[in-house]
Amino acid sequence: KSANPQWREQFDFHYFSDRKDILDIEVWRKDNKKHEELLGTCHVDITALPARQTNCLELPLEKHPGSLLMLIAVAPCTGVSISDLCVCPLGDPIERHQISQRYCLKNSFREMRDIGFLQVKVLKAVDLMAADFSGKSDPFCVLELGNDMLQTHTVYKNLNPEWNKVFTFPIKDIHDVLEVTVFDEDGDKPPDFLGKVAIPLLSV
């Protein structure tokens, strides 16, 4: 019930050089659990923003009244990666030794916010639900830890997809929960939900 909402939320998006350079933003209004209405969209060209500083942007909503006030900072990405199984970051003995030294007891108070990282190998899914009329699905997998989100590629027309990807997340809070969700890609429409698991870090 507000025309001037304040969210004050922070989100970390991992921007890789092979991805598109435009950040798309949508503002929605929710009447109840079933009815939603798009209040406007705006776009930010990431390549036009100065790096290593916080940019204050007031973005007018396209074709709708109102604007969105945001702070956007483009900074080097540390501790986050997507790789294939054959170049797994922990697979190299030298790198594994360097990591063990980095998190040894004598160095534990050097950087209080760096408490570790999580490496997840997403291998495959088995016997997924068929979301298409053809009896198949176009599944991809989304991994979320805190406000960090990474995803696999889509395997088309397959109920037993194999992704074989390695995802690395920095851990900011040991009480976070890793959420792994499988979706069916549906062209320009929102993806269909195929299933989800939640893994508390403290259980690992």
Automatic annotation (TrEMBL):
UniProt keyword terms in alphabetical order: Calcium, Membrane, Metal-binding, Repeat, Transmembrane, Transmembrane helix
Superkingdom as given in the UniProt entry: Eukaryota
Cross-referenced PROSITE patterns: C2 (PS50004)
InterPro entries according to UniProt: C2_dom, C2_domain_sf
Primary location recorded for the protein, binned into one broad class: membrane
GO cellular component, one term: synaptic vesicle membrane
Species whose genome carries this gene: Aegithalos caudatus
A matching Pfam family: C2
Entry's family note: Belongs to the MCTP family.
Gene behind the chain: Mctp2
BP terms from Gene Ontology: regulation of neurotransmitter secretion
Protein name (record): MCTP2 protein
GO molecular function: calcium ion binding
Source organism phylogeny: Eukaryota, Metazoa, Chordata, Craniata, Vertebrata
Record membrane topology: Multi-pass membrane protein
Subcellular location: Membrane
Domain C2 stretches: 1-59, 93-204
